[in-house]
Amino acid sequence: MTDYKLIIKIAITPCLILGFVILRNNFIEYQAANLQIGLLWYRVLFDLFLYISTGILLASLYETYRKIRLLRITKVILLCNILMLILFYGVSYFGFLYFASIKEFFVFNFILMGYYVFLVSHNFRKGES
Prior knowledge:
By secondary structure, the chain is mainly α. Helices cover 81% and strands 0% of the residues.
């Protein structure tokens, strides 16, 4: 992969993971609204997909970061992602975003914030530009 594709991958990974969480919540609401008890096993499969795909994306995120950590734009992208995740957390108290009230959204948001803080601190600790 070229460096630009790797940078884009780092930039959109948190949006992709949080999008999976929103999709999961919408599926659960659809299931509850239509009272389709037979779809319970789909929910279990979707939860399994959500957690496994999140783990895979986070693991690949670190491998991607290691390949492009020397680029200056990497720090900017990581800091922008942290600010975006903090913004999602802050906006939820004002009720502007409907999906920010999802409990799993908060959990994954905090996990992603911690992961990106780790990557930024790792980048600054190494003293790389």
